[in-house]
Design brief:
8 helices, AAA+_ATPase, alpha/beta, about 30% helix, Rossmann fold
């Protein structure tokens, strides 16, 4: 196995003071060059908290996060170290990451400058727009002149323009219409494979995950309860919660329902204590 780009061991993230809530409870994962790891689970299970800790936007209360073997420290008021600009995050809501007062071309150019500061070439903003399926003419627009899906494509283009070797994508295609989701997800995977980048892809859409992820990790109540190569997990899910998630995927005949019990009232069969092979080999 090649040396991981990202190695996370025993990650714990908590919120609150004396009565702290543990959102992430001992998560371990790794991502190799050119690999897409999907992190899946119901809302509130800790996926986004894991993503924010990996990128340095959330403080880890315990555990380690290593990027190319170096510890990832929480972001402060200082500019991110140049080497860490090769870690890029795509948020679920593009409005939280795009500046409404800056034209699209200038925002994508921030990414190209980050790449060039590391000695890596990056195409012009117009080329990145076309790469994510938008007209080059959008370069002169402001974010408010675009639809939500178009803004999300701009956010993806800006992240890719930095020529990252690690992309943390938190529900990156949820703002897109159904017809565009698979195309954009496939484009992101193709760019990862072409550049040798790794990706942590967070999504609740398991049908997309199956198409683009090399490995999948299933998260429940802050823990990863099952992980392994995507085809293996799909063909032989070991944890009952994984089986419920897969059963919830809509089918053309209209079947498929969400897991019936929320996390706070989950049946005993979903207990995190069920022994499973948490990181199965193919």
């Amino acid at each position: 196995m090649s040396t991981p780009i990202l190695q996370v061991d025993g990650l714990v993230v908590e919120y609150g003071g004396r009565a702290a809530v543990r959102a992430v409870d001992g998560v371990s994962l790794h991502i190799a060059p050119g690999e897409v790891l999907a992190l899946v689970g119901e809302s509130g299970c800790g996926k986004s908290s894991t993503a924010r800790a990996v990128i340095g936007m959330e403080r880890a209360h315990a555990g380690t996060i290593a990027y190319h073997g170096a510890s990832v420290k929480p972001l402060g008021l200082r500019t991110r170290p140049r080497a860490l600009t090769a870690m890029q995050m795509v948020f679920q809501d593009p409005n939280s990451s795009l500046n409404p007062r800056v034209r699209v071309a200038q925002q994508i150019a921030d990414g190209t400058r980050a790449a060039r500061s590391r000695g890596v070439s990056s195409p012009r903003p117009e080329e990145w727009l076309e790469a994510v399926g938008l007209p080059a003419s959008f370069a002169g627009r402001f974010p408010h002149q675009l639809s939500g899906g178009q803004r999300q494509r701009v956010a993806i283009a800006r992240a890719l323009a930095a020529r990252p070797d690690l992309i943390v994508a938190d529900e990156p295609i949820s703002a897109l219409d159904a017809s565009a989701q698979a195309a954009v997800a496939g484009m992101m995977r193709e760019l990862c494979l072409d550049s040798g980048s790794g990706m942590l892809f967070i999504s609740h859409d398991l049908s997309v995950v199956r198409l683009m992820a090399d490995r999948v990790a299933v998260m429940y109540r802050g823990r990863i309860v099952e992980s392994g190569p995507t085809p293996l997990v799909w063909a032989n899910p070991l944890h009952p919660y994984t089986r419920d998630l897969l059963a919830a995927i809509p089918h053309p005949d209209g079947t498929g329902t969400l897991p019936s019990a929320p996390a706070a009232e989950a049946p005993e069969a979903w207990s995190e204590d069920i022994p499973v092979a948490r990181d199965r080999a193919a």
